[in-house]
Specification:
The chain has helices at residues 27-35, 113-125, 132-142, 160-173, 177-193; strands at residues 2-4, 9-11, 38-39, 44-45, 58-65, 68-74, 84-91, 96-102, 111-112, 157-158. The protein is an alpha+beta fold.
Length: 195
């Protein structure tokens, strides 16, 4: 699972030193997230809600923007034959809405940020494409800018295949072969799987 905001991304596997198998229970990780809610680079405060709430199911991703926060849950009654994730989205006043995402219906070429984020969480959590979530967060956040990921922008549709391909190309042109290969592998997975 990756938990992050538009400027900071923390992978739970970075906190394996505690020896706990479920990193969402890790108090060290919770303390890191508490300290990461303010980003001095852009002078904004980011609050991530629901990242440690298991009542909705297993948390597979959490992030936020300038006036929003969202957490992706694998419901307790999750069926791999018909994969659905629940996304809880909070506005700047803390009002929550729930959004069910049919992961088999999300098109990488025409989907909202929030639906593609849920899909990338699924691809990483299931092991189908381990780098999908991190790649999507980086590409998704760079396509908007640190202060522009607003509540309304979460529902705007875009072509994520083009964005991931363009990001891979940018890494290649910059001489970052490792980055290029990571983004390219996610793009190829999405292309070859028809997702």
């Amino acid at each position: 699972m990756v938990i992050g905001n538009v400027c900071n991304t923390y992978q739970s596997n970075l906190f394996q030193s505690t020896g706990r198998s479920n990193q969402t229970d890790c108090s060290v990780f919770r303390d890191v997230m508490k300290n990461a809610t303010t980003d001095s680079a852009v002078g904004k405060t980011y609050t991530i809600r629901g990242a440690f709430d298991k009542s909705e199911g297993r948390v597979v991703g959490a992030s936020g923007g300038v006036n929003n926060s969202y957490t992706v849950y694998e419901p307790k009654d999750f069926d791999p034959e018909h994969p659905m994730y629940k996304v809880k989205i909070w506005d700047e006043d803390g009002n929550a809405t729930e959004h069910m995402v049919d992961l088999s219906e999300v098109s990488s070429e025409n989907s909202s940020y929030i639906d593609m984020y849920a899909k990338s969480c699924y691809l990483s959590a299931s092991g189908e494409c381990p780098d999908a979530q991190t790649t999507f967060m980086i590409v998704g956040n760079s396509s908007r800018g640190a202060t522009e990921r607003t509540y309304d922008s979460l529902f705007e549709k875009g072509n994520w295949m083009d964005r991931i391909r363009d990001f891979a190309s940018m890494q290649y042109k910059a001489g970052n072969l490792e980055g290029y290969l990571r983004y390219r592998s996610v793009w190829e997975y999405l292309l070859n799987s028809g997702r």
